[in-house]
Structures are given as structure tokens and as C-alpha cells.
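Hi support team,

I submitted a single chain yesterday and got back a structure, but I'm not sure I'm reading the C-alpha cell output correctly. Could someone confirm the output below corresponds to the sequence I sent? I've pasted both exactly as they appear in my results page.

Thanks,
R.
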Amino acid sequence: MLTVETADVAIPTLGFGTWPLKGGDCERMVTAALGAGFRHLDTAEMYDNEDAVGRGLKAASVPRDQVFVTTKVWHTHLRDGQLQHAAEESLKRLGLDYVDLYLIHWPSPEVSVQEAIGALNEVKTRGLARAVGVANFNVKLIEEAVAASEAQLATNQVEYHLHLDQTPVLEACRRHGLSLTAYAPIGRGKVLDEPEVKAIAADHGRTPAQVALRWLIQQEGVIAIPKTGSLDRLAENLGTLEFSLSDEEMARLFKLARPDGRMVRMGVEPEWDT
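Hi R., thanks for writing in. Yes, this is the structure output for that exact sequence:
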């Protein structure tokens, strides 16, 4: 599995996203994903599936130190003390002594970046997480978080796909040594109908989803975490690692970004840069 090296951890470039899987379905898919070859699991406090992810991980015949586990704290638990407690509770649900990466899921208008990042740093200092980072931060918040953090931040997890230009955020991440983790990496399926994507897929004997994912992970410092509830799609997504796109093909795909490309709206988001 290819990795992105950042903040003294190696993050597999292709992860298994678990939202919105729940219960037995989530447990079975996590075990299947690990059996298929995935080594990066992404969950969150808000997903209400950490217990199932933990059971799926335990059921898989893969040593714990070979699986990169990410979870996140919800924006209502960012106060100093609350955040550390939330990390402890996530570990209990996961059945783990530590996670590999612990993220602030969304910024909060009620808690300063400085307070939240200070608490996040303590999670790492206490050994509850090997690395820490953020999610859904715009450029301004990335700058504030980096300035406030004693620890090197590992990633900023944001919506990123062919229809959404994230150049300002990606440049800020690279400037400060963060990776960018792309959620909704196939744009909730909408990018798969693009004629350009279909044409490039046909040229490579690949699927449109594989082309959309390959475009992401072929960019420097970018990780993708596609989600699926389908066993067949696990193998398809892993096939993304088996081919490359030319510079010309990458350039053609970059042109598919649109002004209305953003799909995720939560009501707590910052003012986006694009």
C-alpha cells in the first residue's frame, strides 16, 4: 500500500471510509476491507459506529500495528477537558489503546482554535493518538491551527473530488507539511458520469471510480477515503493503486472543477476559500 509520510506517521493513501455504515454491516465491511488489503480505516465519534469498527478490526486477521486507524472528535466537544474525554471514550468504543490519527472533525464558532488545538496536543502527548490533525479547516484556520500547535499536524480532511477545486487549501497544507485527506472522493457518484472520466477510464481499461480516485492520490500529499457497503467495490477501489494517469490526463481532469461543486453542507462550516 502506498503511503503519505507526515508528522512521523505513514498514512496509507487509500483508506476505507465507514460513514454511514452501522452495526453488523459496518463490522462485516471493516473485516472484509482489511481482508481485501485496506490498511487504513476512517471513523468518527459522530458516525456512531466506532464500536462496530473496533469489532471488525478485532475480527480481521491483521495485526493492530499494521492498520492505520483514524477517528474524530465532534465540534461540540472541543473545550479543553471535553476533547480529551471524548478521545478516551472513542478508544473505549473502538476497543483500542490508541488511534493512529485523531482529528478535530469540524471547527467550532464557540471554541477558539487555540483552546481546541491545545487539548488536541494533550491527546497526542498522553499517547492516546500517534498523530493529530484537523478536518474541514479553511486556509485561515489551517494557519491558526499550525501556529497554535506544538505537534506537527498530520492532515486536514476535507471534501475533495473532481468537481471541487481545493487548490488554496491544498497549497496551505503543503506549505505547512500537512497531507490532505479527501472525503466524498467520487463526489457522491456525480463525477462518474463525466464524459472525460469515462473516456480516460476506457483508455486504461479501468472504471470511472478508479480514475476519480487515482486523480486524487496521484497528487502530492493527497489521501482518499472512499466509502462503500459493497464487497465488489472494495476490490475495485483497491485497483486504483494498479495504474497511473499521464500528466496530460491529470490536466484534463483538473478542468472538471465547477463553481457549484461543493456538496457537503453541515451548518457549522467556515467560510470556504473556493
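A quick pointer for reading it: The chain has one domain: 3-188+212-244. Let us know if anything else looks off.

Best,
Support desk
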